[in-house]
Design goal:
13 helices, binds magnesium ion, alpha/beta, binds aspartic acid, 18 strands, six-stranded antiparallel beta sheet, globular
């Protein structure tokens, strides 16, 4: 029988009523003849509570025990969902990650999936089980310990199962009814897109649109998994959500598909560093070792052999960055006069595969911001994205103005 993967996020399984509602949707697909693999998140708020407990006991926790604790939220929902389905006379079983087994590497709290041997679940399907309810977010390491895939990791679990079982589709049920041109809380003119290309979704996800974990989109793109984002709260079950798929001709006609933003950005400038071969490596090596996710980088023109180096990173990594840079200075690896941190910035980005073939997108973006009197502090571009760093207080205004300028209210 064809296999369908259905993933329910935390808000879709927040209480027993919601679990029942989700189970009904699963029942509909079973009745259509699918064998269904349901991936569940923890009830909303549960994982945060578990993380909080770990932090309270041990701020510098042993990541293996962190995983043992925070993976448990999904075990509860998997069992409750299987019971709910059984009450509806749907033959269902819960599966924890290790039982499948979902094999990962040993990078506790941010493990990567290595393999999902399908045999155990396939055998049960052959014996009459119609739904395998799998606890998302968790797996088992080569050492036999429980691992987790990083926050939001159930999306990645779902896509990995869809790839491993050659599923017809992977439906991600969440609390929004699809992917929007921007955050509807910021622009009332935001529109739900019927389709979005993998590459665009990848940019939007990594830019902070929190609908899907970035890695799940990467995986879907690599294995060409047909991915759909839709709401489980929506009463009209016929709402088709947004399909994330290979790029199609009609998508190219739109230049920009979405405006993304990220509020928690900071800009750091090393003032007057010696401009010599190896200097960038000497700065960004220690930052990467310290786990700082450097995003944009600019090196200024140098004068008398010295230059300024500016980069951006998430605000909650600033302390780590400062520590790493001061350490590098003390060890003599780098030398700078001052380190200036600006934590009042936000990043706003325009994304669209149409940019590849259309010129003037950047110019239009800069003109729009300038018309609003918004100063641009840093610019970065890729083939299908333009990002700017601006004062945080103008973030909403910038998103609205760009959404208007690129006429995204006309998309669907
Ligand atoms: N429950 C986990 C989290 O909150 C994983 C997930 O829901 O995707 O991050
Ligand atoms: Mg999520």
């Amino acid at each position: 029988m064809p296999v369908l993967v259905m993933k329910f996020g935390g808000t879709s399984v927040a209480n027993l009523d919601r679990i029942k509602r989700a189970a009904k949707r699963v029942g509909v697909e079973v009745a259509k003849g699918y064998d269904v693999i349901v991936i569940v998140s923890a009830m909303s708020g549960k994982t945060n509570e578990l993380v909080g407990w770990v932090d309270e006991i041990s701020p510098l926790f042993d990541a293996r025990e962190y995983d043992a604790v925070v993976s448990s939220g999904e075990n509860i929902t998997a069992g409750l969902m299987a019971l709910t389905l059984q009450e509806m006379d749907v033959p269902a079983r819960s599966w924890q990650g290790w039982q499948v087994p979902l094999k990962t590497n040993s990078a506790h709290s941010a493990a990567r999936i290595e393999d999902i041997p399908p045999d155990n679940i396939r055998t049960k399907f052959a014996e009459g089980m119609r739904v395998a309810v799998v606890a998302g977010f968790q797996g088992i390491s080569p050492e036999g310990r429980i691992t987790t895939l990083g926050r939001g990791g159930s999306d990645t679990t779902a896509v990995a199962f869809a790839a491993a079982f050659d599923a017809e589709r992977c439906d991600i049920y969440t609390d929004v009814d699809g992917v929007y041109t921007t955050d509807p809380r910021i622009s009332a003119k935001a529109r739900k897109l019927d389709k979005i290309a993998f590459e665009e979704m990848l940019e939007l996800a990594s830019l902070g649109a929190k609908v899907l974990q970035t890695r799940s989109v990467e995986l879907a793109m690599r294995y060409n998994v047909k991915l759909r984002v839709l709401s489980s709260l929506n009463e009209q079950s016929d709402s088709a959500g947004t399909l994330v798929c290979d790029e199609e001709e009609n998508m190219e006609s739109r230049v920009v598909s979405g405006i993304a933003y990220s509020r928690e950005e900071s800009k750091m400038t090393l003032v007057s560093v010696a401009d010599r071969p190896g200097i960038a490596a000497a700065i960004f090596g220690p930052l990467s070792e310290a786990g700082v996710n450097v995003d944009m980088i600019i090196q200024n023109i140098s004068e008398e052999g010295r230059t300024d180096m500016t980069f951006s990173c998430p605000t909650n990594q600033v302390q780590r960055a400062e520590k790493a840079l001061e350490g590098a200075k003390q060890s003599g690896a780098i030398n700078y006069h001052d380190l200036i941190t600006d934590s009042d910035v936000a990043k706003v980005s325009a994304v669209g595969i149409g940019m590849r073939s259309q010129s003037g997108v950047a110019a239009k973006m800069f003109k729009t911001l300038s018309d609003e009197g918004i100063n641009i502090k840093v610019i970065a571009t890729s083939e299908i994205k333009i990002s700017v760093l601006i004062d945080r207080k103008y973030m909403e205004l910038a998103v609205q103005a760009l959404h208007d300028a690129f006429e995204l209210e006309k998309l669907a």
